[in-house]
Design goal:
By secondary structure, the protein is of the alpha+beta class. It is 55% helix and 13% strand.
Length: 78
């Protein structure tokens, strides 16, 4: 996959900013891997083994903040 395939198109961003639910979902899906990564932490169990724990509440909070930022974003701001 080349690096341009990993980008969100201007048309999708514009639609998301205008409140299109499908476009917003595409933006969320684009950032989902990053959101999951920063929502995961390492815990050490009683035997000293590392356990990776994902905070599902934090994932939902971050997605909500992303949607809020999308809807507030102004493409025409100079």
């Amino acid at each position: 996959m080349n690096r341009h395939e990993c980008r969100i198109s201007y048309q999708v961003l514009q639609a998301a900013i205008n409140g299109d639910a499908e476009a917003i979902q595409k933006v969320i899906e684009h950032y989902e891997g990053y959101i999951k990564t920063i929502s995961t932490s390492v815990m050490v169990d009683e035997f000293g083994n590392d356990q990776y724990v994902t905070d599902t509440y934090l994932i939902e909070v971050l997605k909500l903040h992303l949607v809020t930022a999308i809807l507030k974003f102004d493409l025409n701001k100079e």
